[in-house]
Amino acid sequence: MNDEPLIALRDVCRQFQVGDETVHALDHVSLDIHAGDYISVMGPSGSGKSTLLNMLGLLDQTNAGSYCFAGRELTTLPEEQRAQVRRDNIGFIFQSFHLIPRLTAAENVELPLVLTGMPASERKIKVRQALTGLGLADRADHRPAQLSGGQQQRVAIARATIMHAPLLLADEPTGNLDSHSSTEVIRILEDLNTQGITLVVVTHDTEIGKRARRRIRMVDGRVVGDDG
Amino acid sequence: MKPQDTLHFSYQALRAYPGRTALILLAMCIGVAAIILLTSLGEGARLYVIGQFQGLGSNLLIVLPGRSETTGGAPPMLGTTPRDLTLDDALALQRSPAIKDVAPIILGAAPVAYESREREVTIMGSTPALLSARQLDLALGQSLPDTNPRVATAVCLLGETVWKELFGNRPALGAWVRIGESRFRVIGVLAGKGQSLGSDMSDMVVIPVASARNLFNAPSLFRIIVTASSQGQLPQAEQDIEQIIRQRHDGENDITIIAQDSLIGTFDNILGALTWALGGIAAISLIVAGILIMNVMLVAVSQRKAEIGLLKALGAPTSQVLRLFLTEATLLASAGGALGLVLGLSGVLVLNQAVPDFSAQPPLWALIASVLITFFTGLLFGSIPARQAARLDPVAALSGR
């Protein structure tokens, strides 16, 4: 494994103004994430774990501190270039799947490729491979409303991995699923990790949290526990 | 993202909200159809009026007594008449080689009676030249006798309406009618020409100019209608008229000559401007449609926040999100414009079927302008919602805030 961390956070702070109060969602967080890591982030609601994930995924910007991605200092990168870094390096999994309802499963998976401007014929092959790999080949032309929760999350995983991004960020990936589907989704994510993808899962399900090799606990915007 | 993919994505988004899309299409469609219909009406009116003038006869000059000092426009109904036009003035005009027909006109109204039937009719005293100058045809009989116009003869030509009213279906040629206190023999009936600039030639009786002078006891002419021998001779004819009358009127320039050309030109300008104004009014409805697009798109952006957030998370740059929503607005506007074009042109077709006398037709500039305006309305009013979408914070958008 490379010694240089994939992501290095140094004293990252993020504050929100809620009414008169300033909420410290991230309070001087320093964190190294290495390629191939399997990390769970746990903590009570409002502890800043989702903010941390958004920060890692370049969706949010720091108020203080620095962010390095694969040795590149990206703290002050403008949004246009952040979008490109996200597109090529980061896959997102959301609790509510965030599939576009009017598009079929295949079209949802295809979306990141469409954004890169890849020709349609090439996209079709990749999408078919991705769906087949997740056992969704026969669901390609179904719309999200016609799929079960577990199937929808698998479509979302196919979309998050279609670009072969090295980093996968999952925010409560099993929050809307029954236990059977949860197990299935977690297993798929762990398989991907085995194949080398760096996986960060935010969850408040301790069973799922415990499966990770490295477990981070957050309270009030601070990392209070980091074992593994 | 490739342009065709952007287009496809936007198209799918529009398909996903059929109600909203239909509403905007309807608004754009009505706006464009309004432009086309209103400008078609304006253009139709212009062509109608020009047609009416041409119905007067070509190469026409009208000589009126009195001098109008105003330039470029209204016929001189006002102003004093220092010297009347006389029959001799009219006959003198025939000296000019640039002039073909000279028709002196005396106008009046008198009761015309045949047996027990009587009608108040406009009486026009003139010469046979009137028929060729005003391009009138005879339905029956012959024209006024081509004799010395200073001699009164008791003959008359009946307009078609007068003939039907007085005689029913009975033959009129050779019959004697009473006009005022005198008796006239009917020698011809004019073919129906219909309305021409307000004077209904079919509801009229034409008698020799000398007879009319006696009938109305008026030595002066109402006007003289002159035709030039050709279109190119019009300026020469006008010059000759002025010169001849000036000689006869002790060197005074006391007549007004109205050329049909300049009248047409004036009306052409006025009605052309009217068409532009109508187009402008209709364009306002397009702007209203544009504002509707903006409002509906603003609602769409707030409803699709999660989708916008997702696109950003997947790596769509701000400019791409902007392009997607602009494409949607432009697609909507263009499709609405196309529908409006079809609706407007069908409306014009129906209108022309319903009113055959009036031929409405859309001017080319209005067609081009309406298409361009719709396109830019979409772009302009779509840009505000699109910009709002592009500026959304991805984290807030993903959580639907």
Report the biggest beta sheet of chain A as strand number plus sense, adding barrel if it closes. 6 strands, mixed
The radius of gyration over CA of chain A amounts to 18 Å
**Secondary-structure content class of chain A:** alpha/beta
H/E element sequence of chain B: HHEHEEHEEHEEEEEHEHEHHHHH
Tally the structural domains of chain B.
2
> What name is given to the CATH topology of the domain at 38-46 and 80-227 in chain A?
Rossmann fold
Shape of chain B: elongated
3D shape of chain A: globular
Which CATH top level class of the domain at 38-46 and 80-227 in chain A fits?
Answer: Alpha Beta
| Helix and strand sequence of chain A | EEEHEEHEHHHEHEHEE
Largest sheet of chain B: 6 strands, mixed, barrel
Tell me the total number of β-strands of chain A. Answer: 10
Low-confidence stretches of chain A: none
Alpha plus pi helix count of chain B: 12
Low-pLDDT segments, ≥5 res of chain B? none
Q: Nearest-angstrom radius of gyration of chain B?
A: 33 Å
Q: Estimate the helix proportion of chain A, in percent.
A: 25-40%
Which chains have the largest interface? Answer: A-B, 29 and 25 residues
Summarize the structure.
Chain B: InterPro entries: ABC3_permease_C (IPR003838), MacB_PCD (IPR025857), Macrolide_Exporter_MacB (IPR050250). The complex is a heterodimer of chains A (228) and B (401). Chain A has 228 residues and is α/β, with parallel strands linked by helices.
Model description:
Chain A: InterPro entries: AAA+_ATPase, ABC_transporter-like_ATP-bd, ABC_transporter-like_CS, ABC_transpr_LolD-like, MacB-like_ATP-bd, P-loop_NTPase. Chain A: This is ABC transporter ATP-binding protein. Chain A: Residues 7-228 form the ABC transporter domain. The complex is a heterodimer of chains A (228) and B (401). Chain A has 228 residues and is an alpha/beta fold. Chain A has a domain at 38-46 and 80-227: P-loop containing nucleotide triphosphate hydrolases (Rossmann fold, 3-Layer(aba) Sandwich), CATH 3.40.50.300. Helices cover 35% and strands 28% of the residues of chain A. Chain A has 7 helices and 10 strands. In chain A, helix 3 (105-116) packs across helix 4 (120-133), helix 3 runs parallel beside helix 5 (149-161) and helix 5 (149-161) runs parallel beside helix 6 (179-194). Chain A is globular, with a radius of gyration of 18 Å. The mean pLDDT of chain A is 94. Chain B folds into 2 domains: 3-52 and 265-398, no CATH class; 83-253, no CATH class. Chain B has 12 helices and 12 strands. In chain B, a hairpin with a 2-residue loop joins strand 6 and strand 7. In chain B, helix 2 packs antiparallel against helix 8 and helix 2 crosses helix 10 (318-354). Chain B is 54% helix and 18% strand. Chain B starts with a helix and ends with a helix. The longest helix of chain B has 44 residues, at 260-303. In chain B, the strands form 2 sheets. Chain B has a 6-stranded mixed β-barrel with strand order 2-3-10-5-7-6. Chain B has 401 residues and is of the alpha+beta class. The model of chain B has no long low-confidence stretch (mean pLDDT 86). Chains A and B meet through helix 2 and helix 3 of A and helix 1, helix 9, helix 10 and helix 12 of B.
